[in-house]
Amino acid sequence: MKLDYEAIFRASPYPYLVMDNNLVVLDANNAYLRSTHATKEAIVGKYVFDAFPSNPDDPSSTSIAEVKTSLEKAIATGMPDITPFLRYAVPKTRGDTNEFDEKYWSTVSTPILGEDGKTAFVVQHPIDVTDLYSFNKVSKTASVDHKMKAAQDADNFNRAQMHEAMLRILNDERGHLKNLFNQAPGFVAVLTGPKHVFEMVNEAYYQLVGHRDVLGKPVWEALPEVQGQGFDELLDNVYNTGKAWVGHSVSFNVQRDPNGPLTTRYIDLLYQPVFDAHGNVSGIFAQGHDVTEAYESQMAHLEAEARLNEGMLAAKMIVWDWNLSDRKIIFSNNAADVLGGTPDTIDELIEMLHEADRIKAMKVHDDVIKNGMGIHEALRFLRPDNGNMIWIDIRGKTLCNEDGLTYARLGVYWILLIVCKLRKNCVSQISKKMNFLQCSPMSYAIRSHQLVQPRKF
Question: Are residues 103 and 167 in the same domain?
């Protein structure tokens, strides 16, 4: 008995549309005609997008470009092309009216090869998944309708077709989520069970652990060198208590190359418990960032700052900012040790000066306000903690805003000499110490450093 393939084509419950390589409709089976409200006479011999034109009142409801791309890709590659979900409204009637029926489809474009191995024509197999989705006209987005009207009505939607369409959609969504998972900026791993078996990891996690094969293995089998660093207790505690754990700049020794040495990395890390449908912990979601470079940079900065503070304290030098708008002064952390106290405003500072130097200080103050001049004066200062008089060499420069107006001063105090009693040779000693400070390596090193520590306005 000879098989009647055309009869099979006509009787198939699955919709099929046949086109040539120019996308001219050659044929369509009955299931296709029913699902698209079309007749053979209305579509055969026409360019497919003339047979199924866009909705003039809502062009976005007919994804012509997406359908065309899929068909042309199948023709060019000789391989089927799947579009898991697309929006394509079809005319309700073939009259003069412009009424369209909102439709969602899951399609496969399959090339049929000729004897020469090249595509002879292309078959589109669309499944109507409209009843599986609800469309928000405001946001113009479609989402799965969890009521599943189609699943409750087998006559309205063939169960086999629904199953096939859902598989396409789920595979597409899984692929999309996996792509997002892999492109996450931080490392991510999903662990299951009390032995913390790797179920999923992203590319950033592979980079962190040296691209080892970890899937399906318990953590301590996949990463044996990590055991004993405290992470085993943390994971067990999160799994047993259901409480998340967060750590910052955590030291992590890992073998990043096969048979290579341990490398210390610093990570920000979150262990988040994953619960099953019954509320029990089924696994752990691990997410974090490799912050090694930032951590080492911070440590280097703190070390440099500590050395600078030690040098400033040894040289009896402080850094200061004077905000002209509110007259407040902010000092470096060593100011109290060097000056015996830290005045809050320029007025308090002037009051702490030797009475004979206050007029000079006020003149400096006026020059700064009026002319934005720099500061370089040697003044006598009375320590508020013990009453001793010290000479201070005050130096500073003007800071201006975008309009060129002076808004602050920043500068340096150098303590030249501590004087308990006025002595005749005081001036010569001050002169010698100023010359020393001008020429000393410590002076050069401190000047070359960005002295912006106290600035907070």
Answer: yes
- Neighbouring CB atoms inside 10 A of 379's CB total 22
Q: Is residue 58 part of a domain?
A: yes
> Which residues form the domain of 256?
187-290
pLDDT tens string 393-446? 887 777 766 666 655 555 555 554 444 333 444 444 444 544 544 444 444 334
**At residue 267, what is the residue type?**
I
Q: Are residues 278 and 313 in the same domain?
A: no
Q: Characterise 261 by phi-psi region: left (phi > 0), alpha (psi -120 to 50), beta (else).
A: beta
Domain boundary among 148, 181, 214: 181
Cβ neighbours around 282 below 10 Å, total: 16
Strand order in the sheet with 389-400: 329-331, 317-323, 406-419, 389-400, 375-382
Angstrom distance (rounded) from CA 445 to CA 304: 12
Contacts of 293 by beta carbon, 8 Å cutoff, 6+ apart:
none
> Last residue of a domain, which of 117, 148, 181?
181
CA angle 166, 168, 172 (to 5 degrees): 115
Which residues sit opposite 328 in a β-bridge? Answer: 345
What pTM was computed for the model?
0.48
Name the residue among 105, 113, 110, 114 with its Cα closest to residue 123: 110
Tens digits of residue pLDDT in 75-130: 999 999 988 888 898 988 776 667 888 888 888 999 999 999 999 999 999 988 88
